[in-house]
Design a protein that fits this description.
mainly beta, 5 strands
Length: about 80
Amino acid sequence: MADRVSGVVRWYNQARGTGYVDGDDGREIRVDGRAIEDGTFVVEGLRVTYVPVEDENGWHAEHLNIVRHQPGAAEHG
């Protein structure tokens, strides 16, 4: 398995289950809701880790985990 990368959720559409993460490695990564491992949803500003995978459509995240919630953000659950 590839190395995990950290990043921040830039945009995520809950209804569509897709979004983007700005990776600390400088890559823009697509996120699909099925890649979120802890079963929660993500919102803009969350710090996450993931495994970047390249396919025919570019880079996407697999095995995404939330590292910490944005300061002041309400917890969902």
